[in-house]
Amino acid sequence: MRLVRYAYPNQRSLSPFSGLQSPWSGLEGEIDRLFESVLGDYAAPAADRFPVDLYEDKENLYVRAELPGISRDDINVEMIEDYLTITAARKTKEEGGEQSLSFSRSVTVPESVQGDKVSAQYQDGVLTVTLPKKEEAKPRKIAVSVS
After folding, report:
1. What is the C-alpha to C-alpha distance for residues 97 and 73, in angstroms, rounded to an integer?
2. How do residues 71-103 score in pLDDT, each as one tens digit?
3. What is the Cα–Cα distance from 111 to 52, expressed in whole angstroms?
């Protein structure tokens, strides 16, 4: 889906009193410019990124990404220091030959994760990366005795 900006008709050109200048005439343009400068990056998502879901339970942190139409061989998951990087490539065959479009997403991983035990599973177009927590990061239940 692509957002298209609607251009309002110029009120001065439609008005029979086009010689009169309203003090509010430039306000609409200034408000549009302000919103575009602040929200411009969010209105059009980057073409080379994909959304991920992050969630956790008592034992693990999870990163879930929907990658429909991508072959398992075209997905790469790397854990380097405190960053988990997922890269994927979609190959399409067209009349002129084969085209490739690559996607990438990096997520900062907390220090409470065991980096050497990270695992990934890809099923039905959904990639789930499991990040096990260290023992000291897992919640513990402490019994309280009453005397």
Report:
1. 20
2. 889 999 998 888 889 999 887 777 777 877 888
3. 20
Question: How many angstroms separate the CA atoms of 89 and 124, rounded?
Answer: 16
Q: Which residues does 85 contact at the CB level (< 8 Å), separation at least 6?
A: 77, 78, 79, 104, 105, 106, 107
* Domain ranges across the chain: 11-43, 52-135
Q: What are phi and psi of 118, to 5 degrees?
A: -70, 140
Side-chain half-sphere CA neighbours of 56 within 13 A: 14
pTM score over 0.70: no
Nearest Cα residue to 65 out of 103, 101, 29:
103
H helices of the chain, in order, are 11-14, 27-43
Per-residue pLDDT of 30-40, as tens digits, reads 777 777 766 65
CA distance 13 to 23: 16
- Decide yes or no: CATH 2.60.40.790 for domain 52-135: yes
pLDDT at 59 over 70: yes
What CA–CA distance (Å, rounded) separates 9 from 143?
70
